[in-house]
Amino acid sequence: MTKNRILSPALDPTPPVDPAAERMTFTVLPRFNLATLITMIEPLRIANYLASRPLYHWQILSPDGPEVPASNGLSIAAGPLDDRPRRGEAVFLLASWGAEDYAGRPLLAWLRRLSREGARLCAVELGAYPMARAGLLTGRQVAVHWSWAPGFRERHPDIAVVEQLYTPAETVLTCAGGMAGMDLMLRLIADRHGEGLAGEIADQMLHHGIRPADAPQRRTPGRGTDQFAPVLRQAIALIEANIADPLPVPEIARRLGLSQRQLERQFHRGLGCSVVQFGTLVRLQHARVLLIATKLSVREIATATGFNALSHFASAFRKCFGRRPSDYRQGWAPGEATPSWPGTLTAYLETLRQRTTRAVRDGASSFAFVSSSADPGAEKPQAWDEPPVRRRPG
């Protein structure tokens, strides 16, 4: 089988013809996200296309060249890390699968040298891991892809993680990856050449509109879901903020000024599941990221995600994802052609809706998943149309 390659030159074929042109360097690690690289380079190409002179020149480097495989199976040509001075230039480090354990000394030493020389560094997606290992993110706010943020927090508890598209800065930037790379590049172009040119580039790419740095990464349950009632968004935020020590449903309702029945009604209308079911799913999703991205034991991960017993965690994980926690220590094992991610939030919520429909039809309980794996002493979840249980304090 012919190997898939992108045969574009890794280095500038000629020096910049205009000394005012800005040079940028994209450094890639194996299994990087090719789509992110393309969305970051394309704004530069279009800027050159629209302008009367070249505004940007770029090169692609890697400590693992000369051909670096991307996560989609394509390989890209890349030059070796070089000693060219880069004071004031932007150097982007793009990494994805496996970057959490990347510890290549040549790369880390190269990044430290560039930082000392005054280059403007940017960690993209999981490029934050080697950048943190090089000691370049200490005391900074860091944007990483939301699905890996829990793992990054566990490995680097001293670094503040923010769930936004990118973090602007003069010396060290971070970017969550994906389409956020395009927004970052358009911002950099606007800062250098004006909002008008950035807007025209966005028009050429059919990218409307240009999002600010602090825009949310997600538009599905958990962040920035406009279709949900504000109180439901607030409830989801409370659940996600208390994963290690889950709030009881009555406490969530109390903080939101609702009755328990009203809160359950909001979840069933917006998500098609109960508060307990959604909270359990959020904790299990958090757990599967920790399984991949950290060296914590399964028992430690169970505790970190609010499960009182390892057996309860293992049972809930298998019921939700169809796999044991120990089977999921690698999201992309070396022997696998592609990575795996056991199920989606949408598919899981649809399964809950189907179970509820069958339960109503058959007159059975619609909470089999939660009630069969609930923590010892946990209250039985209620349907949204049941009256709340009144308990005396203490």
Can you describe this structure?
This protein has 394 residues and is an alpha/beta fold. 40% of the residues lie in helices and 11% in strands. The protein has 14 helices and 11 strands. It has a 6-stranded mixed sheet with strand order 3-2-6-7-11-10, with helices on both faces. A hairpin with a 5-residue loop joins strand 4 and strand 5. Helix 4 (149-155) packs across helix 10 (275-293) and helix 5 packs antiparallel against helix 6 (195-204). It is globular. The protein starts with a strand and ends in a 23-residue tail after the last helix. Mean pLDDT is 83; it is low at 365-394.
Keywords:
three-stranded mixed beta sheet; disordered C terminus; six-stranded mixed beta sheet; 11 strands
Radius of gyration computed on alpha carbons: 24 Å
Low-confidence stretches: 365-394
Q: Would you report the number of β strands? A: 11
Note the run of SSEs as H and E.
EEHEEEEHEHEHEEEHHHHHHHHHH
Mean pLDDT: 83
Q: Brief overview, please?
A:
The protein is of the alpha/beta class.
Question: Layout of SSEs?
Answer:
Elements: E1 5-6, E2 22-28, H1 34-50, E3 56-61, E4 67-69, E5 75-77, E6 90-95, H2 105-117, E7 120-125, H3 128-133, E8 141-142, H4 149-155, E9 160-161, E10 166-167, E11 172-175, H5 180-193, H6 195-204, H7 230-241, H8 249-256, H9 260-270, H10 275-293, H11 298-304, H12 310-321, H13 345-362, H14 368-371
Helix pairs in contact: 1-5, 1-6, 4-10, 5-6
